[in-house]
Amino acid sequence: MMDDPWKEVSMIIHPLQRATPEAVGISSRAILAFVDETEATLDELHSFMLLCHGKVAAEGWWKPYAPHLPHMLFSLSKSFTSTAIGLAVAEGRLSIDDPVLKFFPEEASPSPSENLKAMRLRQLLSMSTGHQEDTTGRMASAEDGNWARAFLSLPVEHKPGTHFVYNSGATYMLSAVIQKVTGVTLLEYLKPRLFEPLGIDNP
Fold it and tell me: What's the whole-number mean pLDDT along residues 93-114?
């Protein structure tokens, strides 16, 4: 068994092939009509790419955006955070059934609520932590800047797993868990495991 299975990950990057729309069975006029309709309907377009049979049949960017410029991904980053948790599970570093409090002994209250004690990583992943509303705003306003402590100090109104609310604070806590168990940031953890093998040089 290898000490570090990630060393065996292939670093060969295969750039996407290009083809004309007609070469992959798509009408150029249909693509233009779609782009025109989308441009007229949406307030702001940044970029567009159409793949068919593994080949790029059409692509474009609206100024000031360009293919070489990094782009804010906002909540798409949640997918990368969840992926990091999955990788950490595969490496035996944690389980999604671990209590959230297990990772934050210094940040937690000495007398946490029963609902907080019942909260597991799986509820962070599914945004069913039991909070009545998104925790992000209250975490961001924490005077000491400790978002994890702020999250753990908030009331958990519902039993975890019974109430869904879109909660970016839950995703932040997952990134904090990764940092606790690995000693590196989420980005540093994902670089050799995900971004570099995919050829993403500037995530």
Answer: 97
Do residues 90 and 119 share a domain? Answer: yes
CA proximity to 115, closest of 149, 175, 161, 173 = 161
Q: Is residue 5 part of a domain?
A: no
Question: Does 151 share its domain with 189?
Answer: yes
User: Under 8 Å CB-to-CB from 42, ≥6 apart: which residues?
Assistant: none
Tens digits of residue pLDDT in 69-95: 888 888 999 999 999 999 999 999 999
Residue labelled with tokens 């540093």: 188
Query: Does the pLDDT value for residue 141 go beyond 60?
Result: yes
Whether residue 40 is predicted with pLDDT greater than 50 in this model: the reply is yes
pTM of the model: 0.79
Name the residue range of residue 79's domain: 74-195
Note whether 123 and 190 are same-domain residues: yes
**Domain check: are 93 and 182 in the same one?**
yes
What span, in angstroms and rounded, lies between the C-alpha atoms of 147 and 145?
Answer: 6
For residues 199 and 203, give the distance between their C-alpha atoms in angstroms, rounded to a whole number.
10
